[in-house]
Amino acid sequence: MKSIKLFLYIGIIGIGFTFEGCKKLLDEPVYSQLAPENFLTTQPGIESVLDAAFGEGYISGYDSHSSRDIENWCTDIEWETGGGENRAATLMINFTWDASVDWMYSVMWARPYRAIRNANTVLDNVDAASLTDAQKTGYKAEARFIRALSYYHLYTWFGPIPLRKSLTDSLELPRASDTEMQSFIESELLAVIPDLPAPGKEKNYGRPNKGAAMGLLCKFYLNTKQWQKCADVAKQITDMNVYKLYPDYENLFKVENEHNSEFILVDPQIAQGDGNNYINGAFPPSFAKDPISGLTMQSNWNNWGAQYRLYDAFYNSFEQGDKRKNLILTSYVNSGGATVSLLNADNIRSFKYWPDPNAISNDHGNDIAEVRYADILLSEAESLNELNGPTQEAIDLINQVRERAGLPDLMLGSFSSKESLRAHLLLERSWEFYTEAGIRREDQIRMGTFVSSAIARGHTNAKPTMVVFPIPQAAMDANPKLVQNDGY
Amino acid sequence: MDLKVHYYYWLLPKVSKQTLRIMKLIAIILFAACIQVSAKGYSQISLSETNAPLQKVFQKIQKQSGYDFVSNYETLRDAGNVTVNVRNVSLENALDACLKSKPLTYVIIGKTIVVQKKVKDYINTVNNAIALEPLPPLAIEIHGRVINKKGEPLQNASVIISGSKVGTTTDRDGYFTLSAPDNKNVELEISSVGYQTKKIKVTGQSEINVTLELEVTGLSDVVVVGYGTQKKSDLTGAITTIKSDDFTKGVNTSVDDLLSGKAAGVQVVQNSSEPGGGVSISIRGASSINAGTGPLFVIDGLPIDNSAAVSGSGTEVATRSPRNPLSSINPADIASIEVLKDASAAAIYGSRGANGVVIITTKKGRSGVMKVSYNGYAGMQNIAKKIDLLTPVQYQTVLNELIDEGAAPADSKVTSIANGGTDWQSQIFQSNAVVQSHNVSLTGGAGKSNYYMSFGYFDQDGIVKSSSFQRYSARINLQTHASDNFEIGLNLNTSYSINDYAPIGFGINGESGAIYTALNFDPSLPVRDSSGKYSLSSFLDMDNPLALINGINSLGNIYRTYGTIYGKYTILPGLSAKLNLGGDILNERKDSYTSSLTRHGAPQGGIASLLQGQKSNYLVEATLAYDKKFNQHQVNAVIGATTQRFITNNTNMGARQFPSDVTGTNNLGLGTQATYSLGSNKIANRLLSYLGRVNYQYLDKYLLTASFRIDGSSRFGVNNRFGYFPSLAAAWKINEENFMKNISGLSTLKLRGSWGQTGNQAIGDYAAITTFVGGATAILDDQPIPTTAPARLPNPDLKWETTEQTDIGLDFGFLNYRISGSMDYYNKKTFNMLLNLPVPTSTGFASKLSNVGSIRNTGWEFALNTRNIDNLFKWSSNIIISTMKNKVLSLGPIEQIVTGGAGQTSDIFLIKPGLPLFSFYGYKITGIWQKGDDYSSTSDKVQAGDIKYLNTNSDKTVNADDRVPLGSSFPKFTWSFGNTFRYNNFELNVFIEGNQGAKMLNNNLVDAYFPVQFRRNRFAEPYLNRWTEGNPSGKYPSFIHPTDQGGKLVNSYTVEDASYTRIKTVTLSYFFTPKNNFISKVSVYVTGENLLTFTNYVGYDPSVNPNGNVFQRIDFNAYPLARTFMAGVSIDF
Question: Which one-letter DSSP state was computed for residue B523?
């Protein structure tokens, strides 16, 4: 018995020792992930996280298709049938959307907030990193720009939302007030303009420059109806003497022309995985050839089940001779050799994002311009009209855009009132910007036709509160401090 | 604890010394394994032995004297060798000479010599016994043979004359010889472990042939429990044992197939019927939302990492359900499977025990000359059920009618059917797919060592073309007694598996796989177009099903070697120390190539990807076991410390644009450099644990078990690394009580109760700390640029998920075990759940792994074994029924979580307190809008023939607010009914199983109701009976405007009842012993598997779940079930 006792004592003591000693065993090394302590203090570390902010803040690939779709299906230009995305499309087209639309959460809510998180990670750590002051200033400006862009997107979609400026902000933030939201976006953009490089001087194509920040500010002022400020910034952009209209509208959106002097703020897309998906839905069923341009279906292109269709009413609104209309497909030759007309069935197609010959599967390389110089011109014209009513200055700005479209100049005398020029601007903008990202819905909301035109299309569920989307249910579920938008 | 022990001590009844003595003697006699040979006559004894084993010396004495010896093998062995030299001495003198220096003594009772350890009052005891029961005089010799009903000889069966201590054991061939007092009124009692004891009256004859029946109760079986073994009758916990004899004879690719329907409370669901496909197992419900729900597998003492080394599928290649890592184990090597269900049984595995534990024990060597066995089978598999789709003619008619009614533009009309069209399902299915399995095992032993060696080959072609699984496996189990006190052993398994994957994924368009396209592709097209290429439809964003089958090649090569080596040292009798070292190395390489035969491969010049993964772990484990009986008290205890470290490495690379498809993945360098992609990853985690368990028995009636485990894991926060998992259990053998003894017909009755806590640590590594991982790709200068982003919101306080379980069970046997079984009720509550707790999304994170919320699982389990007819014709049955109730109790601060997606469907499940976990969440269909209905009641765009959804509130629109829970994947109950019929050498097994009340989302049916493209094929039934003006169906809609109401994909039509009853296997076997010396036993059998399924479910198989979680059942492009007919043979040489 004694030896048993001895053995037990030794065992107990032994185990006690190993317990203390072995605790260290549980500190497993991390092999393939990086620790913040020594990573965020370096230049490559800061830049890598900043790049991740760009990766999320500029909306690319399938996500860019999703947010573009959500914003356009509820407008008077386009709609959709078929495909896996038809569920979301039906809700948007019929004005029956609710907080359960998953793209509104995954793409339009979660993604910009990840960009904001990455930007805040840079901003919270950049001062302590071993960088030159110039580097610090540059990185900060870029991070603040991409954060402001993300907040701009969130604000236009959902209205004022939680404003997170640092990683250390408390977990549950309530929604900011409209004033806070607006002043934050404005002040941030104003603050970074001096520190950002001049257009073309940025380190890589795709990084922000002064022009991009000014262009975004101009759109922000426009959509928040700060007319004088909008006109002023537009003027400054023109005065930079960098941007001009690309002479050939029909070729402006082709992948080979995407680096041009008209695109001011661009969401870059590439065929290697993060591409522009629009054309997959624009191809009509069994598309083989466009008899007018001669465009022939390639085997590396996909023709989706989802069908992106334009309303005939929009097509019929074009003025005679408008070159911009040429990017709309009205008939085609199908694989059986038959010519199929797409007219009179709300079934015409936008071929604005002309297929990329080197597309890989769903992904085409055509960049998506969020702000084009044409938009700056028309924004300035609209602001001037809102401030002073129709003036020659405003008409001249519009005529610059019409000239490229091959249309005759407008005459000041044709517009008797602010309202009549505003109405024309809404039309002019539809011809100029149809099926582009982030424009038509904002235009209709700003000019007050978003809900009324939906009701006119027969969507009686449309309500005035629908000018903002509902806060996604998953976001509501996760933060008890969030208050849902009216009407949802 | 201390207090309790004292308390019980004082409760011990007083027992008289006399009773104790008698009991002790009986125990001695019973305990003794008889070494006895019959008497041949009288003579003087001469011995000349040097350092010979006592056993051998006694054999000589027996030969010369004719006296039999009764002793215990261990007693003789422990006494060591003897040197003796005597000539023509008396028996007593010879015995004295032999035992002179030994701690042994002997008594001669009649013609039997009992040799025993010297115990103080042993002689008195024996004398008392003799005085009580004088032995009859000796007379005749009885010869005989003991066999089982299969005709196999039973070695070491004991043959005892009833009422005496005279007995012997059978030799290797089952023969025995015994001296009996006379030939009248002699009764022999023949017993053997695992068989029912039989009594035979010997009247007149001296040749006795006895056939023993298998013991039905198995109460004397030894059951493997965590870190030890126990007699089944002594169990206090809820443990189900499945012996190799009970394994279903069918296509058993993997260990988990063997569990299907065999254990109450254990749900086995095929993720895919694909050869080598994964299986999901859950024991007693689901106790976690985000951590794993599968049980821990322990093979020969080595806890197995049951995750796949390669989980991805490669670029453009849709394959599913990571392969089952257990498929690298040959089921033929398995001796038994123990399922530890309650906390008392599983808590010894602490942090990995919450989902139950499955202990697999492989076959061990047997002493004796080498025994060679072969068993093998071969069979044919065919698809059990095809989905009923529109035929080409129906497709043309129905689609064109839909177009006429305005469903699609006229240019989508089906104008012609080429060559009668194509049944795409038949094109991709293979008829008479062959499956075969061959196993050879060698077992034997010499002296103190024994061995088991086996080699296995398994080869299964799938019923979908281009899918197959092959496995070569080898095992060696060795055991040797290096000295009297020291035993060492080795269990080693190695295998090589080759898995050809069919392309089956979750994609719905261009990325969709073979099954999805076979269900959706245009049936009016021919297989190949006029140019000889696989035909494509310009109306469909989808490849030709055969192009996918033949153009995508995906092959996995899996190498796995694992094993344990142990040393066990007996320090003192009853006290032993064991060191167990284990290791497991799993290497997997998956090659995938999409050739230019396919629609996506052609423009890209071939797409190659190569995934490699290595998972390895090692185990170091030291335990100390103590086993002692003090009078009526028996104590059995184990303590130990163990650590296990897991390391995973992954590499992947890819390339495109090859000059030719010929080299496939074997020369990636031929691809175009700009298309290269690569990645690698390494993670590791470690467990450090301390464990202890005490079993205490009093009077062999009252049983008590307590166990404790301390587990530390590197996965948790520094503040909470260690978890503590206690358990307590008690059992009462009621039938052993005096007041129960008189109840006739009662064979056994045992009440069990247990409580304990187990944990769950099946989460990813590093969840407790901040790290940076690959972020969203930035596009700079039109190039994709890799970035880094914070991986997660860290939770340094992260700790164990705890499951607390109470179990009450009853084991019973009546009418000499003609009816026996058990029932259990469990109540399992999980708290501090490892939940991806939604956090305010403005943080840029969706969730933070946190210890929040709780879930309850409760259920009843019944297992009943009956011998219905027990004559020459025999019929016995096994019935298993388990019920299951799951309820989410709390999600902490969160009201609900909506989750889940597949194909075009999203937001499938609702997790909400008060409901079962993962309740289907969708729209209730109340009927079809008819002409004359009140359309003013809705502002939705509906017309006659559209689906009418339930509007749950007062608004006039049906939207997301009107979704209701539509049931869950939890069955109300599952059952199985096994029957064995025997007549002479024939045996018929019929195994039926069923599942009642489980729901499953039929996501292929979703595509029928909400077609992604108009020109896809659809399920026939709803379309052939669709609503038209002439057929105002109240069930099926007109399908003219399927998505006008927004595509309510999860609804009461698409969430189907997956209840079923299935005749799972029918096996007819024939046993015989050929009349030659070469073969000792043969059995041949034929089996039919998945013969008949009764169900209302319209998909391929109501029992499948390609989504990979038993309780999130989504049927989407499931690999169909096979019906198999096969023949097998097993031969013992």
Answer: T
Q: What are the angstrom distances between the C-alpha of A414 and each of A322, A386, A392, B309?
A: 19, 17, 11, 73
The pLDDT, as a whole number, for residue B10 is 32
Beta strand B746-760 with B772-774: parallel, antiparallel or unpaired?
unpaired
Alpha carbon A174 to its chain centroid, in Å, reads 24
Please give the Cα distance from B286 to B1105 (Å, whole number).
15
Q: Residue A105: its chain B contacts at CB < 8 A?
A: 841
Q: How far, in Å, are B149, B244, B740, B865, B872 from residue B985 at the CA level?
A: 8, 20, 39, 22, 11
Q: State which residue of chain A sits closest to B713, comparing Cα positions.
A: A26
Residues of chain B with pLDDT under 50: 1-16, 18-20, 22-42, 120-138, 217
Average pLDDT, integer, range A432-442: 97
Question: At residue B165, what is the residue type?
Answer: K
* Mean pLDDT comparison of A26-30, A110-114, A168-172, highest-scoring range: A110-114
Note which residues in 245-284 of chain A have CB less than 8 A from chain B. 268-270, 272-274, 280
Q: What is the pLDDT of residue B506?
A: 83
Beta bridge partners of B582: B564, B619
Alpha carbon distance A283, A83 (integer Å): 13
Per-residue pLDDT at B568: 93
Contact (Cβ atoms closer than 8 angstroms) between residue B512 and residue B411: no
Of A229-233, A429-433, B183-187, B742-746, least confident by mean pLDDT is B183-187
Task: With beta carbons under 8 A apart, name residues in chain B contacting A212.
Answer: none
Q: Do the Cβ atoms of B1003 and B1116 come closer than 8 Å?
A: yes
What single-letter amino acid sits at A361? S
B448/B73 Cα distance (integer angstroms) = 13
- Contact B775/A55, CB-based, under 8 Å? yes
> ipTM greater than 0.85, yes or no?
yes
Closest Cα in chain B to A164: B842
H-helix segments, B737-816: 738-741
Specify the pLDDT at position B552.
Answer: 93
Widest CA span in chain B: 119
How many angstroms separate the CA of residue A439 from the nearest CA in chain B?
Answer: 23
Share the mean pLDDT of chain A: 93
Residue B846: its chain A contacts at CB < 8 A?
110, 474, 478
Residue B690 with chain A: CB contacts under 8 Å: 15, 19
* Distance, first Cα to last Cα, chain B: 55
Contact B1013 A82 (CB under 8 A): yes
- B989/B246 Cα distance (integer angstroms): 10
Pick from B843, B910, B921, B1017 the residue to mutate for testing the A interface (most A CBs within 10 Å).
B843
Best CA proximity match to B918, nearest among B892, B898, B894, B891: B898
